[in-house]
Amino acid sequence: MKKTKLFELSLEMIGELKKELLESTIIDCGPRLELVEQCIDISFEHGIGVNSLLAAGLPVQAMVLFRAQFEAVTRAYWLLFLASNHQISKLSFSYTFEEQFEKDNYPMISEMLEKLSKANLPAKSVIDHLCAFKKYHLKQLNSVVHTGKQSFTRNIMGFNEDLLLTFMRQSNNLITVAAQIMLKHTVPDKQYFIHELIGKYRLCFYLDDDVDPAVKDRVEKYYTDEHLK
Asked: Could you give the C-alpha distances from 4 to 99, 161, 178, in angstroms and in order?
């Protein structure tokens, strides 16, 4: 499949997911869920941006946004499960001029994931996947964001088509992971819609079955060797 075709299919999938959310009745859980919903909206738009940049032939720029998308999704889960009421109140601000200059004193993404992982939450399977994403991708994405080694390497080497398609699909994964929070808070619970969506748009997603075992073993060996150093 060409990336332009996958991009079109991804937009169709995202549109159908957004429509389902808009037509659903969501429980009023106060400012906490409102902030989570804002995070999810941001992650959706990031995902559309990632797909758009990849389709437009701007993969390095897409990787920068991909990193931001991952953090938006992770922060949504942190806000839902672990943020204190004081932290929630600090984020529910009045949009004054002075507030633009206040420093954010919130956990970094690694700390958020560590705390989420240790909390034994009902969303453990999702948290485990987010932790795996951090393990395998965050170092490289951070390098791209900060114009580090990965930026220079990829600027020269580029990306093959298969890798770009994988990036698109992984970005779509994050979109459904974000949406699952809101579907959990609908009346009735509509989390089943994610499974239906993945079945209908299977080509849009990168699932465990798509992982090459040989590549996975090679990567795992690298991390094991790093741990032993």
From this structure: 41, 11, 24
Q: For the chain, how many residues are written?
A: 229
Return left, alpha or beta for 120; rule: phi > 0 is left, psi -120 to 50 is alpha, else beta: left
List the one residue out of 150, 100, 136 whose CA is nearest residue 208: 136
Sign of CA dihedral 120, 125, 129, 130: negative
Joined tokens for residue 2: 């060409």
Question: Measured between alpha carbons, how far is 50 from 13 in angstroms, rounded to an integer?
Answer: 15
| Cβ atoms within 10 Å, residue 155 | 12
pLDDT-derived band at 228, boundaries 50, 70, 90? very low
The C-alpha angle 47, 34, 114, rounded to 5 degrees, equals 65
Three-state DSSP state, 26: strand
* CA dihedral (95, 101, 105, 110) positive or negative: positive
In this predicted model, what pLDDT tens digit does every residue of 198-222 receive, in sequence order?
A: 999 999 999 988 888 888 888 888 7
In eight-state DSSP terms, residue 24 is S
213 cis-preceded (ω within 30 degrees of 0): no
Give the 3-state secondary structure of residue 186.
Answer: strand
CA atoms within 13 A on the CB side of 47: 31
Amino acid (one-letter) located at 32: R
Q: Tokens 């032993």 belong to which residue?
A: 228
pLDDT averaged over every residue in the chain: 90
